[in-house]
Amino acid sequence: MYIHDMNASNQLFRGSLTTIILKLLSEQEKMYGYEMTKKVKELTGGELTLTEGALYPALHKMEAAGLLETTIENIGNRSRKYYHLTKKGNKEVPSKLAEMEAFFRQMQTILNLRLSTGK
Amino acid sequence: MYIHDMNASNQLFRGSLTTIILKLLSEQEKMYGYEMTKKVKELTGGELTLTEGALYPALHKMEAAGLLETTIENIGNRSRKYYHLTKKGNKEVPSKLAEMEAFFRQMQTILNLRLSTGK
DNA sequence: AAGATATGCCTAAGATTTTTATGTATATAA
DNA sequence: TTATATACATAAAAATCTTAGGCATATCTT
User: Fold this and answer.
1) Which spans in chain B are helix H?
2) Tens-place pLDDT, residues A70-100
3) What's the Å distance between residue B28 CA and nucleotide D24 C1'?
């Protein structure tokens, strides 16, 4: 993630997709792509959109990198490709989250933002 | 802006440079490029690096967009190009910060991160 | 005095990631 | 029947960053 430019407020930030995918799969065991897009929309009240054009290439890349594995399940005449973390993928979860957290702290410092501690 | 991928931890996040520049200049009236790189390094204890290769093109783009204006000052035999916010640039500060803040909140929701409220 | 580092600007090639626009197919709701 | 939802995917183009320079002056070390 470099510093750059965010445009529309309903989209995601360059540089966070891998971390989001790892996080989702660390909580849910297995998910399919379309499900992830819905999940992100749901979690953010529709404010963030994970587009399929960004998601699928990222999933394929992560699979090629050995972070994810897939299993196909057929629902009636349609099939879903479920992704789940490999051992390697699992190991990367905490470090990626820590990295992101560190980055956010730094950005808060620079921008002097106040994000609710909140629950 | 979309979700994507952060690599090295010492670099900046894609999509935040414009906001950082606006914020710095909203606090300091005028700054020159090199000074901004030092400021970011200082603010983050050396953890984030604003590279000149990313910064200068961004400054030029923002100037072309009418957000910034420049004045040259000569210090001995060397010159500095100071950037300052235009009226238009000034108006964009709060909305950009709000956008970034909203984005961070959403990411916290998804990633379940806890950033200290702090201070 | 020489050499290294710091200050200060800049660009260009390449890589990466995302946007936008499609394409295909099945299922369900209007 | 038509539109929307589900579900996968790719490809061209745009955007942004990394890396790697280049140039010039000033200061600090040895």
Assistant:
1) 17-28, 33-43, 52-64, 87-111
2) 999 999 899 999 999 999 999 999 999 999 9
3) 28
Q: Is A107:B13 a contact under the CB 8 Å cutoff?
A: yes
- Using a 7 Å cut-off to protein CB atoms, list the covered nucleotides of chain C: 7-13, 16-22, 25-28
Q: How far apart are CA A107 and CA A105, in angstroms?
A: 5
* Residue A61: CB less than 7 A from any atom in strand C: yes
Q: Do B20 and A48 touch (CB under 8 A)?
A: no
Considering only CA atoms, which of B75, B13, B87 is closest in space to residue B48?
B13
CA of A50 to C1' of C27 (A): 23
3-state secondary structure of A80: strand
- Inter-chain contact A102–B23, Cβ cutoff 8 Å? no
In terms of Cβ atoms closer than 10 Å to its own Cβ (0-12, 13-18, 19+), residue A43 is: middle
Burial class (CB in 10 A: 0-12, 13-18, 19+), B80: middle
CA dihedral of A105, B109, A2, A93, whole degrees rounded to 10:
90
C-alpha distance from A108 to closest chain B C-alpha (Å): 9
pLDDT, tens only, A41-80? 999 999 999 999 999 999 999 999 999 999 999 998 999 9
Can you give the pTM of this predicted structure? 0.88
CB atoms within 10 A of CB B17: 24
Distance from CA of B59 to the nearest CA of A (A): 11
Q: Which chain D positions come under 7 Å from a protein C-beta?
A: 6-12, 15-21, 24-27
